[in-house]
């Protein structure tokens, strides 16, 4: 598989790697393996050809475009992989896949990884899993996370089905010598946040689920299929080759991979607490809190990009209008002023969406042109499958209520995709060169680390225009950490054929 997965490959790829399901009710589950042979049997039961109540959802298009009653996907941590195929086989896979196994074996709790991406202090692994609710094991979580083996995500159409299918899933776990082969270690439910008639919002108040990479020529991205499904606007997003998300053995891809990894991927499973009270307090320091929130994110609360509508929300936008824009040279069908924003006057360098996807801004570190061609951040993009958890914030509520974002950040190369974005674009200061006249600081939605010595990282700097003798850029001080990591796990998302090997405790030969 090169840039475009073949139709036959789609049935070997887990569906969430290449497409969003748009299911509103989700349960994120982590299982601990107690008996490796029983865990192998459980993996066999999840195969599509099994006659079990539930099976893994592939990327094969749904018949007639009709959603199934549920979708189910599986990730395996490195300690879980050892349980399933043994240390020697894991070492063989790692040796044949040096780039792709760069950080996966060390895991999300590794000190070097946590310091790079900002998982320190209150966000450090020693504080994970228990404080958010959802921890199920009788013993407390360890700081290594080595007892967390399989991560499953269950999607349903109606909330009542969540417990029904969860019970069916647990019923598929083999019982050996009177003990279940796997036991639930953690779970977290996600339900939609509704604003008006729209269900796609997060706790900070922004419309979510807007920008995902456009992968190759998968069937659902073809123009004819989009028109058939009532999506009428034009998609100008650059195409990102499928091998950045579904692992390929093609000789032209930028990595080497063991055959076990074919059509699989990797993901960072993240549980991110959002401090809505602190966020609201910060934006309300200004006389125009909605503008401050837009400058922090790069979008107005309803999802309208600042690049498309710098003065407020635009209710005429639809479909790909929310993502058809660049920062330097407008896309062919970009709405709004179509203004070159090299100085960050419309959308600050610091804004979350500009940092997470700098598009055509070639001054961003790691996004420089290659052979004179713009990169559009393609090699670093991740497929984000995340959704909100916890109740909607109520002013004056009791302290300690847990809410935030939970889900998977998917890419074939965890180091060059998820970790690069988090370490170089989100957590690091001055991610752009030149970084003037608009100082990028750090991502304002995440906020500075407590021990950050740079005073500029406590400020949000944004353009307000010329107004007499007043400076054109305004500094709003007092940025703190608005997002705290409450859990993280690096997992391998096996292809269906790879899952067959895992169910047998084997690996394919090279």
Write structural notes for this entry.
The protein is globular, with a radius of gyration of 22 Å. The mean pLDDT is 93. It starts with 6 loop residues before the first helix and ends in a 6-residue tail after the last helix. The strands form five sheets. Strands 2-3-1-6 form a four-stranded antiparallel beta sheet. The protein has a four-stranded antiparallel beta sheet with strand order 10-11-9-14. A two-stranded antiparallel ribbon has the order 4-5. The protein has 510 residues and is an alpha+beta fold. It is built from 13 helices and 14 strands.
> Regarding quaternary structure, how should these chains be classified?
single chain
In one word, what is the shape? globular
SSE run = HHEHEHHHEHEEEEHEEHHHEEHEEEH
The beta-strand count equals 14
Low-confidence stretches: none
Biggest sheet, in brief?
A: 4 strands, antiparallel
Helix content: 10-25%
Structural class: alpha+beta
Percentage of residues in DSSP E strands:
15-25%
Average of pLDDT: 93
**Spatial order of the strands in the main sheet?**
2-3-1-6
Count of helical regions: 13
Distance between the termini: 17 Å
Radius of gyration: 22 Å
List its salient traits.
alpha+beta; 20% helix; four-stranded antiparallel sheet; 14 strands; 13 helices; 510 residues
């Amino acid at each position: 598989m090169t840039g475009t997965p073949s139709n036959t490959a789609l049935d070997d790829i887990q569906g969430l790697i290449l497409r969003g399901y748009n299911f509103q009710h989700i349960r994120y589950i982590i299982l601990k393996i107690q008996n490796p042979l029983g865990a192998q049997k459980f993996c066999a039961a999840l195969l599509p050809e099994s006659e079990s109540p539930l099976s893994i959802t592939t990327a094969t298009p749904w018949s007639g475009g009709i959603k199934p009653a549920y979708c189910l996907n599986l990730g395996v941590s490195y300690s879980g992989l050892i349980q399933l195929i043994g240390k020697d086989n894991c070492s063989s896979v790692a040796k044949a896949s040096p780039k792709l196994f760069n950080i996966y074996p060390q895991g999300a709790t590794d000190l070097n990884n946590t310091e790079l991406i900002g998982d320190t202090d209150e966000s450090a692994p020693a504080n994970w899993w228990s404080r958010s609710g959802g921890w199920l094991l009788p013993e407390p979580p360890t700081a290594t996370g080595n007892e967390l083996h399989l991560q499953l995500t269950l999607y349903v159409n109606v909330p009542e089905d969540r417990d029904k299918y969860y019970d069916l899933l647990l019923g598929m776990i083999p019982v050996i010598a009177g003990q279940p082969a796997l036991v639930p270690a953690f779970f977290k439910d996600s339900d939609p946040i509704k604003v008006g008639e729209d269900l796609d919002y997060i706790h900070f108040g922004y419309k979510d689920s807007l920008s995902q990479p456009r992968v190759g020529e998968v069937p659902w991205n073809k123009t004819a299929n989009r028109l058939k499904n009532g999506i009428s606007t034009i998609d100008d997003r650059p195409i990102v080759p499928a091998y950045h998300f579904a692992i390929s053995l093609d000789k032209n891809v930028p990595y080497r991979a063991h055959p076990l990894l074919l059509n699989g991927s990797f993901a960072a499973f993240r549980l991110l607490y959002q401090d809505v009270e602190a966020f609201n307090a910060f934006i309300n320091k200004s006389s125009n809190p909605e503008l401050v929130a837009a400058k922090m994110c790069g979008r107005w609360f309803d999802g309208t990009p600042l690049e498309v509508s710098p003065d407020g929300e635009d209710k005429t936008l639809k479909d790909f209008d929310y993502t058809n824009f660049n920062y330097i040279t407008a896309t062919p069908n970009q709405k709004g002023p179509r203004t070159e924003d090299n100085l960050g006057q419309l959308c600050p360098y610091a804004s979350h969406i500009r940092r997470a996807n700098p598009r055509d801004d070639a001054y961003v570190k790691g996004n420089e042109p290659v052979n004179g061609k713009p990169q559009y951040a393609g090699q670093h993009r991740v497929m984000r499958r995340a959704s909100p958890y916890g109740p909607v914030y109520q002013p004056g509520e009791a302290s300690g209520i847990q809410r935030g974002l939970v889900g998977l950040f998917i890419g074939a190369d965890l180091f060059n995709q998820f970790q690069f974005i988090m370490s170089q674009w989100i957590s690091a200061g001055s991610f752009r060169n030149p970084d003037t006249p608009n100082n990028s600081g750090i991502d304002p939605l995440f906020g500075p680390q407590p021990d950050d010595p740079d005073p500029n990282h406590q400020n949000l700097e944004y353009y307000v225009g010329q107004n007499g003798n007043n400076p054109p850029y305004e500094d709003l001080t007092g940025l703190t950490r608005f997002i705290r990591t409450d859990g993280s796990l690096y997992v391998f998302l096996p292809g269906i054929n790879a899952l067959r090997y895992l169910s047998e405790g084997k690996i394919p030969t090279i």
